[in-house]
């Protein structure tokens, strides 16, 4: 028997299906640089449920080993995770790599090099999506992203009005400010249901402003047992549900 929070999500999805609609889910996993046991477990899980995943890779930290490990996984997309995942903000500020703390030209040069590096390492799975480390970026950089080649930006939280395509994540599995393990499953599910209501409400204008996807954010390097069990339950419920479509990186860019 499902626990109450999973039952609530099932009921909400059933209502979406009954209305003849579908919701686009997507999975973003950050910080892959090399093959690890955590990455192996992630790939095994998404392969089992046929759920695609966008893996955000810091270009300066990766190489051929990760390229070989991801080769052949049709459901994997690779996005640009900044450059070296290095903080350049002073101690009194929140961490940022792509902030206004360095010359704009320096940041753009790193992004250009990172884009080219990942495109060469992952020719079949690369997508022109920028995932800023710590989900923060200087807004003044957005106008320059198309010139680098980027077609979309992904941070965390509801999409805000922007001339540049935003494909954000909305439910983070990690309790970063507390245990640094998995958040309470009910709390994560509540975030998903809230996002579901936001994009499936009756107000079409508000739906358009909110975006069209539900993004789930994971970090395979620091997952505990609670995260893995949450993902198993989420995929079991949603992967074959008629209201759900798990989307690839290419789908999101399109």
Descriptive report:
It is a single chain. With 254 residues, this protein is α/β, with parallel strands linked by helices. Strands 1, 2, 3, 4, 5, 6, 7 and 8 form an eight-stranded parallel β-sheet that branches. The protein has one domain: TIM Barrel (Alpha-Beta Barrel), CATH 3.20.20.370. Helix 1 packs parallel to helix 6 and helix 2 runs parallel beside helix 8. About 2% of the residues have low confidence.
Relevant terms:
254 residues; alpha/beta; TIM Barrel
Approximately what portion of the residues adopt beta-strand conformation?
5-15%
The chain-level structural class is: alpha/beta
What is the fold named in CATH at topology level? TIM Barrel
Which of globular, elongated, flat, extended, rod-shaped describes the shape? globular
Radius of gyration: 18 Å
CATH architecture: Alpha-Beta Barrel
Average pLDDT, rounded to a whole number, is 94
Count the domains: 1
The total of helices stands at 9
What is the helix/strand order? HEHEHEHEHEEHHEHEH
What is the chains' assembly state? single chain
Number of strands: 8
Detail the poorly predicted runs: 206-210
In the CATH hierarchy, what is the class? Alpha Beta
Please outline the major beta sheet.
Answer: 8 strands, parallel
Distance between the termini: 38 Å
Instruction: Write the CATH homologous superfamily.
Output: Glycoside hydrolase/deacetylase
- Helix amount, in percent? 25-40%
Keywords: Plasmid
Protein name: Polysaccharide deacetylase family protein
InterPro entries: CE4_u4-like (IPR049591), Glyco_hydro/deAcase_b/a-brl (IPR011330)
């Amino acid at each position: 028997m499902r626990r109450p929070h999973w039952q609530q999500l099932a009921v909400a999805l059933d209502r979406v299906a009954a209305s003849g609609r579908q919701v686009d889910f997507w999975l973003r996993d950050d910080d892959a640089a090399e093959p690890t046991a955590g990455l192996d477990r992630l790939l095994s899980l998404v392969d089992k449920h046929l759920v695609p995943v966008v893996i955000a890779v810091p270009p300066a930290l990766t190489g051929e080993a990760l390229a070989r490990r991801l080769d052949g996984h049709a459901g994997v997309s690779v996005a640009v995770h900044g450059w070296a995942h290095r903080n350049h903000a002073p101690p009194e500020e929140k961490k940022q790599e792509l902030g206004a703390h360095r010359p704009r030209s320096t940041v753009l040069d790193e992004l250009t090099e990172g884009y080219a590096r990942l495109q060469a390492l992952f020719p079949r799975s690369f997508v022109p999506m920028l995932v800023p480390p710590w989900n923060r970026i200087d807004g003044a950089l957005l106008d320059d992203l198309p010139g680098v080649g980027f077609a979309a930006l992904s941070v965390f939280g509801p999409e805000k009005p922007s001339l540049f395509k935003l494909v954000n994540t909305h439910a983070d599995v990690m309790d970063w400010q507390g245990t640094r393990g998995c958040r309470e499953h009910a709390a994560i599910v509540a975030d998903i249901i809230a996002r579901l209501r936001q994009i499936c409400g009756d107000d079409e204008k508000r739906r358009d402003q909110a975006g069209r996807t539900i993004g789930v954010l994971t970090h395979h390097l620091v997952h505990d047992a609670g995260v893995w069990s949450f993902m198993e339950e989420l995929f079991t419920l949603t992967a074959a549900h008629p209201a759900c479509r798990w989307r690839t990186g290419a789908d999101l860019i399109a």
